[in-house]
Every structure is written in structure tokens, then in C-alpha cells.
Amino acid sequence: APAQIAVTGLATMGRNLARNLARNGFRVAVHNRSQAKTDALIAEFADEGDFTPAADLPALVAALESPRKVIIMVKAGAPTDAVIDELVPLLDEGDIVVDAGNAHFADTRRRENALREKGLHFVGAGVSGGEEGALLGPSIMPGGSPEAYAALEPMLTKIAAHVGDEACCSHVGPDGAGHFVKMLHNGIEYADMQLIAEAYDLLRRVLGLKPAELAEVFRTWNSGDLESFLIEITAEVLDQVDESSGGPFVDVVLDQAEQKGTGRWTVQSALDLGIPVSGMAEAVFARSLSGDVQRRTAASGVLPGPEDVPSDVDRDKFIDDVRHALYASKLVAYAQGFDAIRAASDEYEWNIDLGEVSKLWRAGCIIRASFLDRIKEAYDRDADLPSLLVDDYFKNAVGEAQDSWRRVVATAATVGVPAPGFSAALSYYDGLRAERLPASLIQGLRDLFGAHTYRRIDRDGSFHLEWAGDRKEHQTD
Ligand code: NDP
């Protein structure tokens, strides 16, 4: 029988995705630009299911039943366009091309538009979970036409991660919606990891705890509100002993974080949408700072820090404070992330169901966490929630955490340990809840130097003051 689906691009992700499909009983045609990867897949895993190896794209397409479904899993950017360009002339109307790589959502919009004009479906599917997720069940965030999703649904939901009977895969929305949501997932992942790193740093430097002791702290946290994959693996990394030095693994790793760019994309997109995503932005900046060796070397040991570091910090109380600060800051990061998704959904008319998005992330992906159920419940209570933070659960959670959170940010500042994630989140929270912001002064300044006008609290219209003249107010519209 002809293959039901094809995968082209058999590096780490594509190969595991193809195996996942085959293990779930689907007939999969497989192809890779350089034949060696195809041969290796067949040599090692042919017994896992029904694979049809193809030497080139025409052979891949010829192996498929109609309408054809081809998953592209190659390097994002120009390589994806190259594969699409080669594939499209081989396809017939109604065929479905899925890009499961980490495409920028704007590229997905462009590609979807181009293929739609040719009568083809283009599905931009965000896939999260790394190598293991691709094989055992990733979180899948597909964007594209409802018809295309309907045709793919039986296969995608079968290979996706599950929570009980529910698959972590559902139609996110048209064109770039899936890749946008995947991008936000990665942005939240950046924020989450930065917050975890700050918690670790503070506990270590303020309390002098050893990595193995810190691993225990994180393990304990993983049984409460913070339960998540990232907290779980934090304990694992902190527990690891380096073979060659015999010391903690975390101490021999160079402290320069790398980034492939999805965090930056998230922040750039949020800036364009006018949504503050300070948690993610601080995470991206912190990685940039960590990698800025030249400037760090010039400043380290040169710029003065605080002289007196408090030595009387209560161990258990501080650990608990940091736990609260981490949770509250994390809630802020998620609230900001969902604000960005809502703004993009409005801007591009994607009509994204935010509660559904939180369900997609409950398993399979890197930010999987039990607390995502709380987000789903919040949007079930009110689908138009202006911010997750005003939902009762979130409001109460942050309310309970806030004294601790403030103490931690204050301690970080006093001791001189950088906590950009914790403090930016707290500032955002205080900004959000403020009755009045000093933006009134900013508007005054803008009017003085640039006649940019201001609005008044007591009357409609725009106004300008003759600053250089009689200081009389004029209404400008
Ligand atoms: P890579 O991103 O390393 O890409 C390698 C694959 O792309 C190979 O199959 C390679 O073929 C193919 N390729 C590169 N250039 C071209 C080209 N011009 N024409 C045709 N094929 C080309 O592979 P990964 O498996 O790591 O990732 C695949 C996609 O999934 C990427 O978009 C990535 O961002 C995304 N992703 C990755 C995750 C991960 O954890 N790695 C997680 C989630 C998504 P060849 O063998 O011939 O060189």
C-alpha cells in the first residue's frame, strides 16, 4: 500500500518523528538530501514499522497516497524554502505540505500564502520536546487551513504527547498561528530557565549551599506548585558530578549561555505588537550579557559591589522566599506570553483559543508543567481575561507570594546578585496594578520638547501647552 505520510529531513528531529509515525502504525515514506541519513534510518529501525525509503523528492512524492502529506523537517530558513521550491512542482491540488521546523511565523505566513495560490495546503506546525519528544510524543502546534488540519489530525494526535486521553495537539489557527505559539513557547522557556538560574544563584551565593544541596531543594520544589520538567532537570544537572574534576558539573561548565534565536524572535515580535514581555526580554539580555566576555572581563573585579553582605539570613525562610519569588515571576512571564499570543491573534485574525494553547503545553514540550492546568481553568472561567494575573487563582497566588518576592528582590539588590528576571517581573506587576503611573510626566516632557500633545483626565481631546510662551493650554483636536 502507498505511504500515508512522508518526512523529508532525517536529522535528529525528522528521523525521530518518522520513527514515531511508523511505531504508531502509519506507513511513512522517508527522504533526506544526503542519502546516508535515509540509509541509516532504514538500517537501524526498519523493523519498527512500515518505512519506504526514497532517494529523491520525486520518489518520495510518488510513494504517497492522495492527498499527499509531506512533513518537512530541515534547517529553518533558506533550506526550508529550498525544499518547498523543489517539492511544490511535484504536488497536485489539495496536497498538504507541513513545515515542522522552527520557522519564523512571518515566513510561515508567506509560504502559506504562496502555496494557497497554487491550490496547496501549507501547515506550519510547531513541534516541541526535542529529540526525545519527537520520538515518544511531542507537543504539536499546527497552524493552517482547517481542512488540512482535519486530514492530518488522526496522525498528529496519535503521535503527540498525551495527558490521559487528551493529545497535546490541536489546531491553533490559520497560517502562522502554530509557529507563533511555538515561538512563544520558546520565549517562555527562556524566561523560565532564567528565573530558575536566578533562584539557584541567590540560594547558592546568599546561603552558601552546595550544588548537591540545591538539587535537593529543587527536588522538593518539584512536588509543589512549581512541579515541571525544567525544575526536575534542574535537580538532575545540579546533582551531576564532573568526572574529570570530581567537582560539581555546574562548576566546570563555561558560564556563557547560547541561543539559537527563538527567544530573540519572541521579544522582537512582542515589541512590534506593543506587548511588554519583560520576563523573556530579560532572559534574552541575560544570555547576551553572559556571552559578552570582553565587557565582563573588563568589569569583573573592577566595578565595585556592596561591602557588607548580610550573614544572618534564615536558611529555611530564604529558601521559601525564593520559591515564592520564582513562582510569582513565572506567573508574570506566562501572563506576558499569553498577552503576546492574544495580541498576535487579534492582529493576524487567528482567533486563537488561549485555554487550548495552555493544554498543548501540558506534556511533550520543554515547559510542560502541572500549573498549565491553572491557565486552562482561568481561561475557562473567562475567555476574555485581560491578563492572567487578574484571574482569582493567579491573583491569590501572587498575593500570597508577594512579600517573599519583594524580600528576595531586595536581598538580591543588597547582596549584589543579579536577578533581572525576578525584579523585572515584580516591576511589571507593580506597574500593572498601579492606579497612576508616571507616564503623565513623560507626556508632559514630550509635550514640552516636541509639542507631542497630551490628553487630560477630565476632558476629551488632545492638548498642547505653549511652554515657551504664555503657557496657555490649547486643544489640538
Ligand atoms: P537541523 O536543524 O540540524 O537540520 C539538518 C537537516 O536539514 C538535515 O536533514 C539536512 O540534510 C537538512 N538540510 C539542511 N539544508 C538543506 C537544504 N538546503 N536542502 C535540503 N535539506 C537540507 O536538524 P534538526 O533535526 O535538529 O532540526 C530540524 C528542524 O526542527 C529545524 O528547523 C529545527 O529548528 C527544528 N527543531 C529542532 C529541535 C531540536 O531539539 N533539535 C526541537 C524542535 C524543532 P543533510 O543531512 O543532507 O545535511
From TrEMBL:
<dbReference type="InterPro" id="IPR013328">
    <property type="entry name" value="6PGD_dom2"/>
</dbReference>
<dbReference type="InterPro" id="IPR036291">
    <property type="entry name" value="NAD(P)-bd_dom_sf"/>
</dbReference>
<comment type="subunit">
    <text>Homodimer.</text>
</comment>
<comment type="function">
    <text>Catalyzes the oxidative decarboxylation of 6-phosphogluconate to ribulose 5-phosphate and CO(2), with concomitant reduction of NADP to NADPH.</text>
</comment>
<dbReference type="InterPro" id="IPR006114">
    <property type="entry name" value="6PGDH_C"/>
</dbReference>
<protein>
    <recommendedName>
        <fullName>6-phosphogluconate dehydrogenase, decarboxylating</fullName>
        <ecNumber>1.1.1.44</ecNumber>
    </recommendedName>
</protein>
<keyword id="KW-0311">Gluconate utilization</keyword>
<comment type="pathway">
    <text>Carbohydrate degradation; pentose phosphate pathway; D-ribulose 5-phosphate from D-glucose 6-phosphate (oxidative stage): step 3/3.</text>
</comment>
<keyword id="KW-0560">Oxidoreductase</keyword>
<dbReference type="InterPro" id="IPR008927">
    <property type="entry name" value="6-PGluconate_DH-like_C_sf"/>
</dbReference>
<feature type="domain" description="6-phosphogluconate dehydrogenase C-terminal">
    <location>
        <begin position="178"/>
        <end position="468"/>
    </location>
</feature>
<dbReference type="Pfam" id="PF00393">
    <property type="entry name" value="6PGD"/>
</dbReference>
<dbReference type="InterPro" id="IPR006183">
    <property type="entry name" value="Pgluconate_DH"/>
</dbReference>
<dbReference type="Pfam" id="PF03446">
    <property type="entry name" value="NAD_binding_2"/>
</dbReference>
<dbReference type="InterPro" id="IPR006115">
    <property type="entry name" value="6PGDH_NADP-bd"/>
</dbReference>
<dbReference type="GO" id="GO:0004616">
    <property type="term" value="F:phosphogluconate dehydrogenase (decarboxylating) activity"/>
</dbReference>
<dbReference type="InterPro" id="IPR006113">
    <property type="entry name" value="6PGDH_Gnd/GntZ"/>
</dbReference>
<keyword id="KW-0521">NADP</keyword>
<keyword id="KW-0570">Pentose shunt</keyword>
<comment type="similarity">
    <text>Belongs to the 6-phosphogluconate dehydrogenase family.</text>
</comment>
<dbReference type="InterPro" id="IPR006184">
    <property type="entry name" value="6PGdom_BS"/>
</dbReference>
